[in-house]
């Protein structure tokens, strides 16, 4: 992997996004708008503080999955990816360039949503704000990495969206957001244990209820980070020049 090529790819993606105002607005503002909507739906600060930290990870995870999978597929179908791969650039250079570009956007996305939730919506946490931000950013990066991975298997943008019920919705349903994982049946509990979003939500919950950074929290962070890295490597292995 060549760092210069990674940076060049990231710069190209960010330059393209700068001219796509609607996509930038969706990436940066939609998670915050959803948090505002959630706050007024509950109309209760205690209840909001109980569920909002997990959603600070879920919303960016979902949005980054959609945007990255569609963006990568569009580059393939328009021939941009094919032209790039005729140059002396490796697959990992391309994928990590995408990851760097969307990772920077994920940091801004999560920072805005977290700042609004803490300053305006009354979110109360016991742990470190920086730890909360780190976990939420890892969630967004995980969604981005999975989006890059599944884009290799889609031929149209509609097919890319169809992967969401397969890769995203089961994780949201089984991550412990709606029902404690320990109260699920053995099969659902096993499925939950192999899904990375479960560990992200558990980490966010621990940060809001305790100020201690323990071994369980570090394990959860490591699992989420490793899953995101594995998705990027698999995405590089399955990357094709163009969609047949």
UniProtKB/TrEMBL annotation:
<keyword id="KW-0813">Transport</keyword>
<keyword id="KW-1133">Transmembrane helix</keyword>
<comment type="similarity">
    <text>Belongs to the ABC-2 integral membrane protein family.</text>
</comment>
<dbReference type="InterPro" id="IPR013525">
    <property type="entry name" value="ABC2_TM"/>
</dbReference>
<dbReference type="GO" id="GO:0043190">
    <property type="term" value="C:ATP-binding cassette (ABC) transporter complex"/>
</dbReference>
<protein>
    <recommendedName>
        <fullName>Transport permease protein</fullName>
    </recommendedName>
</protein>
<keyword id="KW-0472">Membrane</keyword>
<feature type="transmembrane region" description="Helical">
    <location>
        <begin position="129"/>
        <end position="153"/>
    </location>
</feature>
<dbReference type="InterPro" id="IPR000412">
    <property type="entry name" value="ABC_2_transport"/>
</dbReference>
<dbReference type="GO" id="GO:0140359">
    <property type="term" value="F:ABC-type transporter activity"/>
</dbReference>
<dbReference type="InterPro" id="IPR047817">
    <property type="entry name" value="ABC2_TM_bact-type"/>
</dbReference>
<feature type="transmembrane region" description="Helical">
    <location>
        <begin position="94"/>
        <end position="123"/>
    </location>
</feature>
<dbReference type="InterPro" id="IPR051449">
    <property type="entry name" value="ABC-2_transporter_component"/>
</dbReference>
<feature type="transmembrane region" description="Helical">
    <location>
        <begin position="217"/>
        <end position="239"/>
    </location>
</feature>
<feature type="transmembrane region" description="Helical">
    <location>
        <begin position="160"/>
        <end position="179"/>
    </location>
</feature>
<feature type="domain" description="ABC transmembrane type-2">
    <location>
        <begin position="14"/>
        <end position="242"/>
    </location>
</feature>
<keyword id="KW-0046">Antibiotic resistance</keyword>
<dbReference type="Pfam" id="PF01061">
    <property type="entry name" value="ABC2_membrane"/>
</dbReference>
<dbReference type="GO" id="GO:0046677">
    <property type="term" value="P:response to antibiotic"/>
</dbReference>
<feature type="transmembrane region" description="Helical">
    <location>
        <begin position="21"/>
        <end position="42"/>
    </location>
</feature>
<keyword id="KW-1003">Cell membrane</keyword>
<feature type="transmembrane region" description="Helical">
    <location>
        <begin position="54"/>
        <end position="73"/>
    </location>
</feature>
<keyword id="KW-0812">Transmembrane</keyword>
């Amino acid at each position: 992997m060549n760092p210069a090529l990674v940076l060049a790819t990231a710069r190209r993606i960010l330059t393209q996004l700068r001219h796509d105002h609607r996509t930038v607005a969706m990436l940066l503002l939609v998670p915050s708008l959803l948090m505002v909507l959630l706050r007024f739906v509950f109309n209760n600060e205690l209840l909001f503080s109980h569920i909002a930290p997990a959603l600070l990870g879920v919303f960016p995870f979902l949005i980054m999955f959609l945007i990255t999978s569609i963006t990568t597929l569009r580059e393939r179908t328009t021939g941009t990816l094919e032209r790039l791969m005729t140059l002396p650039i490796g697959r990992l250079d391309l994928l990590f360039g995408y990851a760097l570009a969307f990772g920077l956007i994920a940091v801004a996305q999560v920072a805005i949503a977290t700042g609004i939730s803490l300053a305006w919506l009354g979110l109360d946490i016991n742990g470190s704000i920086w730890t909360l931000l780190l976990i939420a950013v890892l969630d967004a990066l995980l969604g981005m990495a999975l989006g890059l991975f599944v884009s290799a298997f889609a031929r149209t943008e509609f097919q890319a969206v169809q992967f969401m019920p397969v890769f995203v919705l089961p994780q949201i349903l089984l991550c412990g957001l709606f029902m404690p994982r320990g109260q699920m049946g053995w099969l659902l509990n096993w499925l939950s244990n192999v899904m990375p979003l479960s560990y992200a939500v558990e980490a966010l919950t621990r940060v809001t209820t305790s100020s201690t950074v323990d071994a369980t929290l570090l394990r959860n962070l490591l699992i989420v980070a490793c899953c995101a890295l594995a998705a990027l490597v698999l995405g590089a292995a399955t990357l094709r020049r163009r969609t047949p």
